[in-house]
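Me: Here is a favour to ask of a fellow structure person. Could you put it straight underneath, so I can go through it closely?

Assistant:
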Amino acid sequence: LLGQILDQWFESEPLKATLATDAVIGAMASPHTPGSGYVLLHHVMGELEGQRGAWGYVAGGMGALSQAIAHAATARGAHIFAEKAVCHVLLGRDGQAQGVALQDGTEVRSKLVLSNASPQITFLELIPQEQLPKDFVQRIRQVDTRSPVTKINVAVDRLPSFLAVPNARDGQPLPHHQCSIHLNCENTHLLHQAFTEAAHGHPSNRPMIELCIPSVLDPGLAPQGCHVVSLFTQYTPSMLADGRSWDEQARNAYADRVFDCIEDYAPGFKASVIGRDILTPPDLERIFGLPGGNIFHGGMSLDQLYFTRPAPSYSGYRSPVPGLYLCGSGAHPGGGVMGAAGRNAAQVALKDFRHL
C-alpha cells in the first residue's frame, strides 16, 4: 500500500499527500487502494539530465515532442501522413497483417504494422473480431479504462499570486511558479474523499489539482505579461450519477468548482482568467482516442501490468495477428512520456523483420 511506503519515510502529512498524488495520477483509485504504491514508483523511475525522478517541460508545448520524433524519423527516410484516419488493418489470406486501409480508400501496404493506438481501438475496431481468439477479445473488452481526469487549460493575464508565497511587486515569476503546484493535498484523507465522491458518480467537491505554468519557462507560449496555466484535476467520473452526461452545464460547474478552490489559495486568480478549455473524460476519449478518457490506455493496476499488459501471453508487443504490433501506452511498461513501449516494440519488430 502507498500509505505504508510513505509512512516509512516521511512524517509530514502535507508532504505525504503531495507525493501520494503521483500514486493516483490518471487512476480511478485512492491512496488507500492496494497497488497504488506501484503507480508512484512508476512515475519517479528514470531520470532527466542526470536527476533521478525529475520531470521537465517540453519547449514549445507537448506537441513539440511529437514533432521532434517526427523530424528524427523523416531524416531517416520515414514518410509521415498526418490527419489520415485508419479504417482497418489489411490482412492476407493467412491472417497476416499486410498494411492499413485509410478512410479515404487509400491502401498502404507493408510487411509489418505497428499500432500506437489503444488496445481497444487496435483490436476491437481495426481488426475483424473473427480473426482474433475469443479469450483475447474478452480480455481486451474487460480492461479497466476508468479515468478520473479532467484537464483544464487556462489563459490568464497575470501570474497567480499565492497566499503562501505572494508575488513580488514587479510581478516576476518566483521559483515555485516553475514547478508543479499541488492544491487540495493537505492530507491523504482529502484525496481519498475526492475519490469516494467520484466512485459514486459525483465530481469531487475538493478535487486534487496539479497546477503548472509552462509559459514561465517557455515565454513563447503566451503574449508578454500573460500566461498559460495547465490544470490536471481529478476525480471526475466518465459517467455521472443517474446516467447524466457531461453537458456544458456540468462541465462548467465542475470547472467553476476547480477555480473556486484555486481562488482560496491564490486570490485574484478567477479575475485573471481570459479563457479556458475543459476536457472531461468523454472529451479526452473523443478527441484523443483515449479509452474511457484514460491517459494510459488502461489503468496501471497490478492486474494490468507486466506480463498481463494488454493481455496474458501478449505482453511482448506481438499480437494474435502476425505482423501486427502494439507500441503505445497500452503495452508494457505502461503510460508516461518515456517512449519505452515504442522503443521495445520497435526492437521486437526489427528482429522479426529480419526473418521476412
